[in-house]
Design goal:
Structural class: alpha+beta
Radius of gyration: 31 Å
Oligomer: single chain
Strand content: 15-25%
Mean pLDDT: 84
Low-confidence stretches: 1-7, 189-194
Length: about 450
């Protein structure tokens, strides 16, 4: 008789789910005393074992009954493990081999429980470690934050040691860093399956310190009002070379730097120089909050509150001309008594009024007149890394910062007044439009 099984492909990809499963409650007496979750875990492990046996029976036939048409035979049991509640739990899995001697066959249900095509067990455990550590949990306390699964199961669990958790966290943060730095900005997936180029209207850049290391981070606001963490670089200070490297990297990843863009900066000359060097048509806006702090640093304590209050009132004037008049009058008053404060106030004054000159509506101006948006992202990065006391190297700072930026991106909402961004784009287009066929090469300040 011809043996067809030797020429037929054996399908073991589908799990065989039994209609009924018997649970040995006597074996779960300990778990019942520990609570409902421990009981559910113990019951679930028994059910999983029954499903795996049903898989083997579906392929090999009932145990003890000879079937000449069978395509596989039982091959005892072996050790295995599955992921459960942030741990790896050892289980005993049945084995089977093809009757033609071609080798061992997979048990579909075990493959499903131990690994999937979408998320491997390692990735699931890594994501859990990343989420918990970014939430402030230390590797030492990691096991205490896991779900209670019963003392007997807990004793057999693995992959919860400090070193194992640390390795998974490092791997996940390296992945986050690589994905952030490699994202294609010329074909961003803003809507599922809809790839469009990232169209930025506003750009912000600032630095954050982790120990002795400085990470310069960039944030963009697109035409629809969505905030995007863009990139980061590591160095010792916020120098022009470092920031230029960051923005050039964005250009190489597909960011269109030929469009007009509002660059909101904190007043750093290095940041300003880098923006002017790479972007073709930037409009520079300086953060008034940083300007107020700089002026306060030149004043005695008793005058700081009064001067700061007058500056804030000026920055909220109805027009740029009114604001400039108020600030100019204040600088004139400070000339005789505190010339350093007066000089600081006049330095870059026009750029602190850029948003006012652009006639940005108040709802949108609240976001664009200051660097609060990028500083909010930086604050989230700092908060996630608050437990780190020893920054070993720059790569560690980059990993933590990138992971924080990715988490911040998940919390972002569209900016207030986003419906006015298209009007702002038109204003920027008119302001930076090339004259006589020659584009502007110097800094553009709204006038």
């Amino acid at each position: 008789m011809r043996k067809n099984y030797q020429n037929e492909e054996i399908d073991t990809s589908q799990a065989a789910v039994p209609e009924q499963v018997n649970v040995a409650l006597a074996e779960l007496a300990g778990e019942m005393r520990e609570g409902l979750l421990a009981l559910a875990v113990g019951t679930g492990l028994q059910v999983m074992a029954a499903i795996m046996e049903a898989d083997v029976t579906a392929v090999c036939g009932p145990k003890g009954r000879h079937d000449p048409e069978r395509t596989a035979v039982r091959h005892g049991h072996g050790g295995g493990s599955v992921t459960l509640g942030g741990r790896r739990i050892p289980v005993e899995r049945p084995r089977m081999r093809a009757v033609d001697g071609s080798g061992e066959l997979p048990v579909a249900s075990y493959e499903l429980f131990s690994d999937t095509e979408l998320f491997s067990d390692t990735e699931i455990l890594g994501r859990m470690a990343l989420e918990r550590m970014l939430a402030g949990l230390s590797t030492r306390r990691y096991p205490a934050a896991l779900e209670p699964i019963g003392a007997r199961t807990e004793q057999a669990a693995t992959t919860t040691s400090r070193s194992a958790v640390s390795r998974r966290f490092v791997a996940q943060t390296q992945t986050a860093l690589a994905e952030l730095l490699a994202a294609d900005l010329s074909a961003l997936d803003l809507v599922a399956l809809d790839l469009v180029a990232l169209d930025l209207v506003a750009f912000m850049v600032d630095g954050v310190h982790f120990g002795e290391h400085t990470c310069v981070v960039a944030l963009g606001i697109d035409i629809d009002g969505t905030k995007h963490p863009l990139s980061l670089v590591e160095g010792s200070t916020e120098n022009a070379t470092l920031v230029t490297e960051l923005i050039v990297g964005l250009r190489e990843r597909g960011l269109d730097v030929t469009r007009p863009i509002l660059a909101v900066l904190d007043g750093s000359k290095a940041l300003r120089r880098a923006v002017l060097e790479v972007f073709d048509r930037p409009v520079i806006g300086r953060c008034p909050l940083h300007k107020i702090r700089n002026v306060e640093d030149h004043l005695p304590e008793k005058l700081r509150t009064t001067v700061a209050s007058r500056m804030r009132r000026a920055y909220h004037a109805d027009s740029a001309l009114a604001a400039e008049a108020e600030l100019g009058a204040l600088a004139a008053e400070l000339d005789r008594t505190h010339p350093g404060a007066a000089a600081s106030l006049r330095e870059g004054m026009a750029e602190t009024l850029t948003v006012l000159r652009l006639n940005v509506p108040p709802t949108l101006a609240r976001t664009l007149r200051s660097t609060n948006a990028v500083e909010s992202m930086i604050s989230i990065c700092r908060e996630h890394a608050s437990n780190v006391k020893n920054w070993r190297d720059g790569q560690m700072a980059l990993r933590w910062c990138a992971a924080g930026m990715v988490e911040a991106g998940k919390q972002f909402r569209r900016v207030n007044g986003h419906m006015h961004l298209r009007s702002l784009r038109d204003t920027l287009e008119k302001l930076t439009r090339p004259v006589g066929g020659t584009a502007h090469t110097d800094a553009v300040t709204a006038a």
